[in-house]
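Cross-check.
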Amino acid sequence: MEKTYFFDDAVWVGAAERSPKSFSVLRGRFELADAKKVTLNILGLGFFKCYINGKCINPDTFLPLSSDFEPTCDPADEVLTYHRIYVPSFDITPFVKEGENVIAIHFGGGWYTHESRVFGLPKAIYCIRAEKSDGEVCRFVSDGECRIGDGYVTNYEFVRREEQDLNINCACFGADFDDSAWEKASLVEELDSDYFATDCPIDKLMGELYVKVVGKGERGTVYDCGKNTTGYPVLKLFALQGKTVRVRFSEEILPDGRLDPKHIQNQLYSVRSNGTDGFAQPEFTWFCFRYFEVEGEAEPTCVKEIYADVPRSSAFECDNETLNWAYETFIHTMLCNMHTGHPSDCPHLERRGYTGDGQLTCHAALSVLDARSFYEKWLQDIADGQDTLSGHIQYTAPYIKSGGGPGGWGSAIVEVPYQLYLHYGDVEVLRKYYGNMRRYIDYLEAHSEFGLVTSDKKGEWCLGDWCGPNILYPEKDITSHNQQVIIPAPYVNTYFMVKSLLTMKKIASLIGKDADIAEYDEKIDMRKRAIRAAYFNTFDGNFVMNVQGANAFAVDLGLGDKSTYTNMVSYYKKLGYFDTGIFATDVLVRTLFENGDDELAVDILTNNGAQGYEHWRRGGATTFHEYWDSNRSRSHCHPMFGAPIAYFFEYLLGIKQAEGSCGYSELIISPRAISRFCRMSGSMNTPQGIVALSYEKTDHGVRFNITVPEGTKASFAIPTYSCELDAGENEFVVSMQ
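Predicted model, tokenized:
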């Protein structure tokens, strides 16, 4: 989209020279008379806070949303497909006055100045449109008359720290501030990108948490805000001028009340006092923590929870506390990882939109949250990052150099649009990205040997599954991925290629590309034969020793013999808990449900062994962890093991779409594992309306109450009873004998 659509003849302005770790403030003036409505289009890079006459119009946000900005930081030997930036717009009518007004832009950093891909120095562009009562429109734009001076953020690393000095121009946002001594802003290079609007939800203040003292740390008082979350504390300052208050954060504490150093992740906020009893908080970063230590003369008033404004669209409750905990905790973990327009792996260590984690949890997230526009924006990021030369899909979207693999990561270009289609019924998303899918299959073909996907981009990782537990040496603290995941990467990567091709067959049929189906069938058959030849043991019917979900991958593709599935069931009945990485966890649970082994699926989901949801719950976790083993010194806020939450709705509640349908227009409601529960209830807010189911056991049988929205065709089916359902409420009792 043309820049003039948003900014008319505005120009980019900033400081001629400045460290990317300290941020300035840009001020401009504009005169209003008889203004009926005043709007503002603005970009400040990286993040920005905008003030009109001293009032912040975007508090507690991290704008603009993340994107690949411009070609400056494309990966080596690749040319990304597209570069764009999303322009925030505001109605600033409530903030302006007749006469002279002041706009002040506090520059931040975010992804634009991230140390792994520094695009450039902070800069801004804006256009103010004032509509008068007679319809005349006046425009005020950023230009060389703007003034620029020092801001109070003096040191900054997006994923680690923010340092402030309130003795530096902390009052510079108001209309009465004298900026005459400030230098004029420099005209800086225009962004080499295209400009777009988006309805993707932005980060906002989503709640405030009460804090309590839980101990004395090495340097100060340790507080607990009640749960692991993302955001920051608000501090009431009592320190004398020039004294510094420091806050360190951790996801865990030690038994003696000190912060657990393994879970601090180098997170630090500090503020140098100007001697007034004011309030302070970070401006351009969030932290992930439950506990924090305040060193210096200050007290926290609350903790602000900050994440994307994505509403919950579901409910789930039953008489099993493990499942209830898993549902609620997955939603919270997912939201804590929804920042700046992409789903992240973790909200502190990396914060990146890993395509592996994101495609894996997409179905579950869309089942429990109203996240359509959020994922549509992220899907565009994935497509924008595709290499035009090879078809390679990046490990993260927006792109930032990271690790991954050629199967479970890049398959996001197939899985995410297909899940959006299934959940919302819009076939256009499949048409839009079908070409990207085909180019990615070409990439996998070029990185195969003997029918197996064996390599990825030169010099990069080539992962298969990820974050499997240590099943070979449980007595040792092994952190190397290669010693945790036993099943070979080519096995898993080729599985994902076949799954993508199977999905693309369905997509081709939906969008009128039937001529491509024969090609996909040929590729699928060849890849299946390669998997069988390389990994199937005809002696016992197992793939890769039947550990870490190896047989589940095969069964999901229709591979193996009669003993393959039987062996898998026997193995997990004996084991009783997960021995799987992130991908196999999802495939294992789904495969058990699909083959009618509901009891075993529930056993594994609720087992209190060393690896599973109950292990985390009993340990006091309030977010999902990166590893099943809670003692590992990595993130305790990773959503990727939450993919099976989708099956709480699809199988336990039985809210399942009929084969070939989409957008929840046709349902077969068939709850599973009823014998395991005395009660269960849940709902989903679908494009057709709210679908709800509850059941409770009585002396006469099981009482069901099912709500079906108007326009949805629905039937009910369990082994002892079936019927057609009417729109509205349906209530009946079924004997289970």
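The chain has 14 helices and 39 strands. The CA atoms of residues 86 and 196 lie 5 Å apart. Passed to J.P. for a second look.
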